[in-house]
């Protein structure tokens, strides 16, 4: 990917992370942001807004790092496991779904609270299915399993710092930003690669024309 489109790719991912996280803060973080606006405390509202813009940048950055780590893991998995790599991905994905419910429940929940922890894997799975279907249509290859692996396993890894916090609102504040950033990167990377390839071809064509004129 050329530097021009790599910067665009990063920038757009950052924008998604900031916008989605900030909107989530207004909806799910009433006591952290919105209450100041309602109370007319403009200074506090602006300060809280700036804080959640920074959180949005952090969410997008975590998503970007996880995506490029996934690309490395995927190639490493293909090299080590070969043809059985898709089956390994399925097993790891199932464990990740289980972990989203069980380990948070084990840390904070009680026997009567398990239902309140099920919504998280359901949301992740819905996003994963939608994204995987779109990704699969982009390619002649079957990319459904690796797409599901990325959307579920890597999102679970990204959520670990927020799952350890007892304040559930932090999960609401970050989950949608992470999922949308992940979806965007997975779906849009081929487009940026194509644009980069076209740009290289144009540069080579111009270079070739200039060389002929010089001769």
Automatic annotation (TrEMBL):
Name of protein: KinB-signaling pathway activation protein
Superkingdom of this protein's organism: Bacteria
Species name: Mammaliicoccus lentus (Staphylococcus lentus)
Keywords: Membrane, Transmembrane, Transmembrane helix
Stretches that traverse the bilayer: 12-30, 50-72, 84-102, 114-131, 143-163, 169-187
Pfam families: KbaA
């Amino acid at each position: 990917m050329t530097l021009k489109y790599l910067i665009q790719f990063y920038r757009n991912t950052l924008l998604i992370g900031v916008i989605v996280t900030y909107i989530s803060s207004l909806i799910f973080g009433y006591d952290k942001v919105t209450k100041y606006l309602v109370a007319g405390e403009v200074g506090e509202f602006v300060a809280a807004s700036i804080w959640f813009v920074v959180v949005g940048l952090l969410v997008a950055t975590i998503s970007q790092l996880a995506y490029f780590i996934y690309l490395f893991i995927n190639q490493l998995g293909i090299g080590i496991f070969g043809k059985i790599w898709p089956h390994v991905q399925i097993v790891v994905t199932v464990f990740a779904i289980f972990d989203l419910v069980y380990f948070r429940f084990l840390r904070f929940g009680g026997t009567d609270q398990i239902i309140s922890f099920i919504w998280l894997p359901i949301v992740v799975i819905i996003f994963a299915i939608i994204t995987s279907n779109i990704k699969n249509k982009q390619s002649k290859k079957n990319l459904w399993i690796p797409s599901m692996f990325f959307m579920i396993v890597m999102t679970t890894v990204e959520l670990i710092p927020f799952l350890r916090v007892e304040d559930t609102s932090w999960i609401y504040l970050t989950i949608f930003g992470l999922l949308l950033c992940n979806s965007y990167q997975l779906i849009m990377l081929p487009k940026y690669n194509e644009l980069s390839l076209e740009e290289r071809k144009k540069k080579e064509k111009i270079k070739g024309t200039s060389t002929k004129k010089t001769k």
